[in-house]
Amino acid sequence: MIIVGICGSPRQQATEHVLKDALMLLEGQGFETRFFTVRGKHINFCTHCDYCLEHKACVFKDDMQEVYALLKEADGIIFATPVYNGGVSAQTKAIMDRCRAAVVGDRNFFKYKVGMGIALGGDRVGGQEAALQQIHTFYILNGMVPISGRFFGANLGATFWTKDTLEGAKQDEEGFRSLKKTVKKFAAFLNKYKQ
């Protein structure tokens, strides 16, 4: 099975580091993984021009073409985002919004795929759960199955307190506990579900 990790941070810092750790944990359980970062990429914002409704493709021909190809082959998807103003980053939201064209082209594009989320904030309570709710909402609206780490520390998924640094994320033991719990449930569900 193929897991695609989407890093919604424009910087090579904590979000990318944590997502790569999650993908390594999944590789250790036998999953194939793919990694995509918005860093250095050109992804236009959706303008709701409705071009996709007529042409079954997006009007913009940018780095989203790579994302569409990755998401199409994925069995599982992980969105990892830094928290910006209490929600997902603009780059993460741009990818989500631009997926409208994929779904217009194929209404079953995301159907039955499994998704999890990772959110990293500069404060301990800095909007991580609100960002995860945005990720889960995207999954639900597109017919996916959202997975959390369940109760006791990973209610909606993996959350990290970075203190606005990579080192802060690396030192967040509670964050890594929530990541391991969420990855474990994600992997277990995928293994059972895809049988």
Lay out the secondary structure.
Blueprint: E1 2-7, H1 14-27, E2 32-37, H2 51-55, H3 64-73, E3 76-82, H4 90-105, E4 114-121, H5 128-141, E5 145-146, E6 158-161, H6 166-170, H7 173-193
Parallel strand pairs: 1-2, 1-3, 3-4, 4-5, 4-6
Helix pairs in contact: 1-7
Verbal overview:
α1 (14-27) crosses α7 (173-193). The model has no long low-confidence stretch (mean pLDDT 96). The chain has helices at 14-27, 51-55, 64-73, 90-105, 128-141, 166-170, 173-193, and strands spanning 2-7, 32-37, 76-82, 114-121, 145-146, 158-161. It is built from 7 helices and 6 strands. Strands 1, 2, 3, 4, 5 and 6 form a 6-stranded parallel beta sheet that branches. By secondary structure, it is of the alpha/beta class. The chain starts with a strand and ends with a helix. β1, α1 and β2 form a beta-alpha-beta unit. The chain has a single domain (2-193), classed as Flavodoxin domain (Rossmann fold), CATH 3.40.50.
Keywords summarizing the entry:
195 residues, alpha/beta, Rossmann fold, six-stranded parallel sheet, 17% strand, globular
